[in-house]
Amino acid sequence: MDSGNTAWVLASAALVLFMTPGLAFFYGGMVRSKNVLGMLMQNVFCMGLVSVLWAAVVFSLAFGKDLGGGLLGGFDFVGLKDLANTATTVPGYVGDFALSVPPLAFVAFQLMFAIITPALITGAVADRMKFVAWATFVPVWLLVVYAPVAHWVFSPQGWLFKKGALDFAGGTVVHINAGIAALALVMVIGRRKGWPGDAMAPHSLPFTLLGTGILWFGWFGFNAGSALAANGLAAQALVNTHMAAAAAMLGWLVVERVKGGHATTLGAASGAVAGLVAITPCAGFVGVMPAILIGFVAGGACFTAIQLKFRFGYDDALDVVGVHLVGGILGSLLLGLFADAGVNALGADGLFAGGGLGLLGKQCLAVGATLVWSFLATYVLAKIIDATIGLRVTPDEEAEGLDGTQHAEAAYAFGDFGSMGRLGS
To answer: CATH no. for residue 137?
Structure first.
């Protein structure tokens, strides 16, 4: 055990947890005022529910001893059994991958990834999903979708890990996984009432900019913390993360200015997040200049991708598909071009570092497998929930807003509203 590494991983876990309320503000500012608490609640709720499930069984399914074929972990760590013992070894984390931090520090760090992944989905179904449906969806999705994909990619025993696919901090496990699940859920729940004809302008862009800043700050723990050590690789990942976000903001604004005539604050925020998403799988495997290029390309590409919802008619309310799915795919595939074993000896050389097309093929496999499993499993789950308790609120409840109908509260308490924002009788 290394005390410096342990301190950094614990601090990184706290940074990643802070990203979830940051995401809540990022999304919350973009919805109408009658739905802001509904959005905040769906995100913050994940911090409670996912944490308990993680300790009970999900960590074991993601990182426990493989049940066979690299598809899923076992039940050896149910209830976090034996993980308080620093002598316990997480399966697969031996040799070059041996942990120098206590197992519980690793548990805590990985938990924060599991919290924010389903939270990302909330932006796609904003303004129309029942809270009880969300509370039902999250635990099943964690067990059926998140745990297997995390095992495939993050666990050294996982089949994609063994194939040589690279994902430094969650391009597939977090962003592609959440992005394609968001698309499946949107296809089942349907469009918002009045979309795309009615104006549904963000009610508080300052909230969105605040959320962007929190996300950017927390992302240093997300990516640099994934080195699992306070070392040069963590420093490389941190610098790459910042540079990609900065370049993506510029890339988004350039395309936005050319196409729409204005560079907007919402565009700056969205562009930065697109860069953070795209660099996530690459952060510890590429140099600084490739990180800048990846970010710049992601900014322009994700801006273009969000226009697809109007062409194909799917109501991805806050552009989860355009930013997280497209950004995650782009970063995962560009890693096959720009990866450099000189940056990280546990990685591989991509095409431009002399490694040929082998790594790109492995990245395509990881992207494809995640897309197929997450979409199909999420679509079936959404259909079952919709057929039983129903996914979305009634038209009257949607018109009134989620804050009042789902939580009996109002974000902005004026006039008829009582103290603490609770609706009066």
So the answer is: 1.10.3430.10
